[in-house]
Design a protein that fits this description.
The complex is a heterodimer of chains A (about 110) and B (about 120). By secondary structure, chain A is mainly β. Chain A has no helices and eleven strands. Classes of the chains: A mainly beta (about 110), B mainly beta (about 120).
């Protein structure tokens, strides 16, 4: 199965700052990668699919890039509601797998 | 309203069984493959099982194969997960999840609130 590695484990930033999260796959997943946001006590929310496509209703400050094995989620200017855990997930190879997550917390 | 509502979680002893349900509304349930994804306390997400829209094809993670059975009743818009031979490591919040389109099976854009399964003596 494909293993996803996310870095950093924790990212401490202030509102208004830019956040850059990384996801690396153990083998190529082409562009079949998604990003999710999860807040405490809530279900995950799909942000980005197929590496760079924003899901319905997702603000433009969220963007995704990358292909093959290296992917990035960028939040251009952090809003208070963006402090959460972010997971990447691949669907290139069965079974679908998730990364361990990056926590974005308030500095 | 488009939503998924899970039920059936609870405390069960190791080796025991539990059946989870997920009631779907607001979309054409039978057109979508559906999945179960779990999250152990304080841990990340793990895909568990999926079933095609018709119910004719099922898929399982190696960690649950042979112990869990996914099924669906499209007349009731309900997804199920029968869990047998439960282990402590099955303790998690179990989410049912729907893909964004009828052909994009392995992304999940609609999630329920989850139901907690605790396996402990």
């Amino acid at each position: 199965e494909i293993v996803l590695t996310q870095s950093p484990a924790t990212l401490s930033l202030s509102p208004g700052e830019r956040a850059t999260l990384s996801c690396r796959a153990s083998q190529s997943v082409s562009s079949y990668l998604a990003w999710y946001q999860q807040k405490p006590g809530q279900a995950p929310r799909l942000l980005i699919y197929d590496a760079s496509n924003r899901a319905t209703g997702i603000p433009a400050r969220f963007s995704g890039s990358g292909s093959g094995t290296d992917f990035t989620l960028t939040i251009s200017s952090l809003e208070p509601e963006d402090f959460a855990v972010y997971y990447c997930q691949q669907r290139s190879n069965w079974p679908p797998t998730f990364g361990p997550g990056t926590k974005v917390d308030i500095k | 309203e488009v939503q998924l509502v899970e039920s059936g979680g609870g405390l069960v002893q190791p080796g025991g069984s539990l059946r989870l349900s997920c009631a779907a509304s607001g979309f054409t349930f039978s057109s979508y493959a559906m999945s179960w994804v779990r999250q152990a306390p304080g841990k990340g997400l793990e895909w568990v099982s999926a079933i095609s829209g018709s119910g004719g094809s099922t898929y399982y993670a190696d960690s649950v194969k042979g112990r869990f059975t996914i099924s669906r009743d499209n007349s009731k818009n309900t997804l199920y997960l029968q869990m047998n031979s439960l282990r402590a490591e099955d303790t998690a919040v179990y989410y049912c999840a729907k893909p964004p389109t009828t052909v994009t099976t392995w992304y999940f854009d609609l999630w329920g609130r989850g139901t907690l399964v605790t396996v402990s003596s």
